[in-house]
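Fold this: ABC transporter
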Amino acid sequence: MQYGIEVSQLTKKYGEKTVVSNLSFAVKKGEVFGLLGHNGAGKSTTIDCLLGLKASDKGESKILGLNPKKKRKELFEKVGVQLQASSYQASIRVGELCEEIAALYKQPADYKKLLEQFKLNTFEKQPVDKLSGGERQKLSVLLALLSQPEVVFLDELTTGLDVAARREVWEILRGLKNQGLTIFLTSHYMDEVEALCDYICLIKEGKEVVSGTVQEVVAQSPCEQLEEAYLWYMSEEVTL
């Protein structure tokens, strides 16, 4: 079995507070994996630890079989990242930003084609800080794909997008998955999770609550829909 991402007993603490606790999972190459949980559940911290942006207190992780701390340079060309918070140079234009990011890679994607795919080509000469929140979000996903990565991390990928734009992004990601891209995402939209994810893991206070396919996770609850099951697992009131 070939895995794009492997995580074993990952633990991260801030002082006395444990943010991620003994988290273990594996993501097959070409699979879409969803890490779900409320704000503060430890999702973004998990991504930061997987990427080597933060040091874990225990456990280990591998991306494409490599240690992200020791093989950061090697993984740089193979991993794309879209984080919740992104900041760019003041007044930089969309096309200029794409050119700057593309220049970091040996064989970048054609950013003009990506701009067309994401319906951002009309904004190529516009300053990034003049884009709407949804347009900036689409741009951040686009930038994560410029390296033509084998694995991409998408943290709340469609927050701020309207329904039509979200579905456009979904279609792009489905196409990339069909080409073999491994996708790790977090999302609060259960319809998005159902549409994209092959496998999901729900966490609460940094601990795994349940994992499996969407169908398996729903079947292990008294609910019929993923959104209701999610609330039930998170111990929130659900009227059945």
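Strands lie at 3-14, 17-28, 32-36, 58-63, 79-82, 151-155, 182-186, 199-204, 207-212. The first strand starts at residue 3 and ends at 14.
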